[in-house]
Design goal:
Pfam families: Lyase_aromatic. It is an enzyme of class 4 (lyase). GO terms for molecular function: histidine ammonia-lyase activity. Keywords: Cytoplasm, Histidine metabolism, Lyase. The protein is mainly α. Helix content is about 55%, strand content about 5%. The protein folds into two domains: about 200 residues, Fumarase C, Chain B, domain 1 (Orthogonal Bundle), CATH 1.10.275; about 240 residues, Up-down Bundle (Fumarase C, Chain A, domain 2). Strand 6 and strand 7 form a beta hairpin. The longest helix has about 30 residues. The C terminus is likely disordered.
């Protein structure tokens, strides 16, 4: 059955971040715009002319990769395209998430719609129909080197278009592709000249994962500000270091945005005001408190750089060869280096923001550094362990994030008999970034959970209105109340859900500056 969600219209221009998330995560259907239909038909005319010519044309009437020197006779060209898709659908390992496959398919369709690939309209239309009907090809974890595009993942999607391979229907049931197509009233296509190559030669998988990671990090970095503000407040830190004139002497935009957000979060705090007296002898807060905007801000600026790269890639038509006017030209635009680099940059960002978050959490638990709070925020220290092991969980995740921050894009293993002798490993960079974003979500959630308990233990002093609303949100969700030890894992998972959904940031009511708006 078709989705009832609004359709995204795919034309010759780039897909937006919002449109990609709507299709990938929220099941929006897809319609090809009139300009896309016209562009596809124009390019197909060029391919049909070349297919009839005696002169060999790569991808149209020749083999592929290291086999490009063989001229393929007309009667074998349909078999050539089928063989290409079948042989390249060589993925292995666990299934890739549904949202990743849908993002990959949408971005491949967006490239087809530019009129630079030479596919036929029925082929492009069927890909749109799969998205609209919620039919998701099974794509495996391993198989892409991030050069010549995400070949194996895209091939598994192309396989479904010819009625082969496995898919999951809109309800998530695993079945043969032919069965799912028939149930939706769709017919598989028989690929013509150039079409198999056009369907599998792009950076769509790594790009889709990059766009979704940027969307997630926009939310997470603003939520990390909320967690930091709660920690500064609960640990009796000062907000004076976040003043605009101090940020102006080092004019990084992300730093200024984070500092302004921290000030807004801490405005009106009785806890902060309580130690603005001559009795306070501390000169400076620890780095993990004082330098929060420097770290969170550098992370924001790095995400903004990644966003620029993603926007350029979304505006690209990645294929080889490409149709340019009335000719077809070979090129190297399928190389994933630009995307792979920023995917690795963002894994570094996730690791470091998580690292400073864990350090703030740890300060709450140490009576030598938490300024009057009980050890581990325990109800009866010794009998109760409080949040001791929550910090262990954070530390385990941060340790993994540091390992995941090792770049994938510096590696290369030659393939295709040395024809493809330098590859980007961008798919691998994207896969590990997804784990990094999940880990950062969990680390920030544990900081929010711990800081909320610390603020409650500062009573009768009241926290700032913004941070107080977050404490109340957690209380309403049944977590963070000080008291005797209880099963902590469900509380952590509840906090993770509140962070991931944006509920924590919405409760704070400050929003933060920069990044995508919250839904």
């Amino acid at each position: 059955m078709q989705t009832t969600t609004p359709h995204v219209r795919v034309g010759t221009g780039p897909v937006s971040f919002t449109e990609l998330v709507a299709v990938a995560r929220h099941g929006a259907g897809v319609t090809l715009a009139d300009d896309a239909v016209a562009a596809i038909e124009r390019a197909r005319g060029v391919i049909d002319t070349l297919a009839e010519a005696e002169t060999p044309s790569y991808g149209v009437s020749t083999g592929f990769g290291a086999l490009a020197t063989r001229h393929i006779p007309v009667e074998l060209r349909a078999q050539l395209q089928r063989s290409l898709v079948r042989s390249h659908a060589a993925g292995s390992g666990p299934e890739v998430e549904r949202e990743v496959v849908r993002a990959l398919m949408l971005l491949r369709l967006s490239t087809l719609a530019t009129g630079h690939t030479g596919v036929r309209m029925p082929t492009a239309q069927l890909m749109a129909d799969l998205l609209t009907h919620g039919i998701t090809p099974v794509v495996r974890e391993y198989g892409s080197l991030g050069c010549s595009g995400d070949l194996a993942p895209l091939s598994h999607c192309a396989l479904a278009l010819i009625g082969e391979g496995e898919v999951r229907d809109a309800a998530g049931e695993l079945m043969p592709a032919a069965q799912a197509l028939a149930a939706a009233g769709l017919e598989p296509v028989e690929l013509a000249a150039k079409e198999g190559l056009a369907l599998i030669n792009g950076t769509d998988g790594m790009l889709g994962m990059l766009v979704m990671a940027i969307s997630d990090l926009d939310l997470l970095l603003r939520t990390a500000d909320v967690a930091a503000a709660m920690s500064v407040e609960g640990l009796l830190g000062t907000d004076r270091v976040f003043a605009p004139d101090l940020q102006a002497v080092r004019p990084h935009p992300g730093q200024a945005a984070s500092a302004a957000h921290l000030l807004a979060l801490l405005e009106g705090s009785e806890v902060v005001a309580s130690h603005r007296t001559p009795d306070c002898t501390r000169v400076q807060d620890a780095y993990s408190l004082r330098c929060s905007p420097q770290v969170h801000g550098a992370a924001r600026d790095t995400v903004d750089h990644a966003r620029l790269v993603a926007e350029r890639e979304l505006a690209s038509a990645v294929d080889n060869p490409v149709v340019l006017g009335d000719r077809v030209e070979s090129n190297g635009n399928f190389h994933g280096a630009p995307v792979a680099y920023v995917l690795d940059f963002l894994a570094i960002v996730a690791a470091d923001v998580a690292s400073i978050s864990e350090r703030r959490t740890d300060r709450f638990l140490d009576p030598a550094r938490n300024h009057g709070l009980p050890p581990f925020l325990a109800h009866d220290p010794g009998v109760d362990s409080g949040h001791m092991i929550a910090q262990y969980t954070q530390a385990a995740i941060v340790s993994e994030l540091k390992r995941l921050a090792v770049p994938a894009s510096v590696d290369s293993i030659p393939s295709s008999a040395m024809q493809e002798d330098h590859v980007s490993m961008g798919w691998s960079a994207a896969r590990k970034l997804r784990r990094s974003v999940d880990g950062l979500t969990r680390v920030v959630a544990i900081e929010v959970l711990t800081a909320a308990r610390g603020l409650q233990l500062r009573a009768p002093l009241r926290p700032a209105p913004a941070t107080g609303r977050v404490v109340e949100l957690l209380r309403e969700a049944g977590v963070s109340e000080p008291g005797q030890d209880r099963w902590l894992s469900p509380e952590i998972e509840a906090a993770v859900d509140l962070v991931r959904s944006g509920a924590v940031l919405r409760a704070a009511g400050t929003g933060g500056t920069g990044g995508a708006p919250l839904g």
